[in-house]
Amino acid sequence: MSDVEKGGxxxxxxxxKKRWRAYKAxxxxxxxxxxxxxxxxxxYLMHFVPTDGxxxxxEFEDLADLFEQAAADGTPIREVxxxxxxxxxxxxxxxxxxxxxxxxxxxxxxxxAIARAAEERPR
Length: 123
Known about the structure:
Blueprint (H helix, E strand, L loop, with lengths): L2 H12 L2 H12 L3 H14 L7 H21 L3 H5 L3 H10 L7 H19 L3
Helix pairs in contact: 1-4, 2-4, 3-4
């Protein structure tokens, strides 16, 4: 993969590089426990990032906002993410994945197909 292809891929995954660097700088400024949690969720979300770089950038910026506010308020991490961090991350990602990540499209496709099927059968 050439540098141009890599740059296009990076932009597609995380959005504008300046925004990505700014997000990473914000996360580095978090207290260690909040930083660890935010970075863990970031890694998990990388599997759910929409193909739209703008949405990806917004997703990560919102993640930083969430953890900055929690740290400022002294909100315990478990109160932020709950007992199931996978459920939290999936719900968080769902806000940004419409039309991006394939399962979101497939959920919509399935819902539509079932709705059509339910309408087709005469009563």
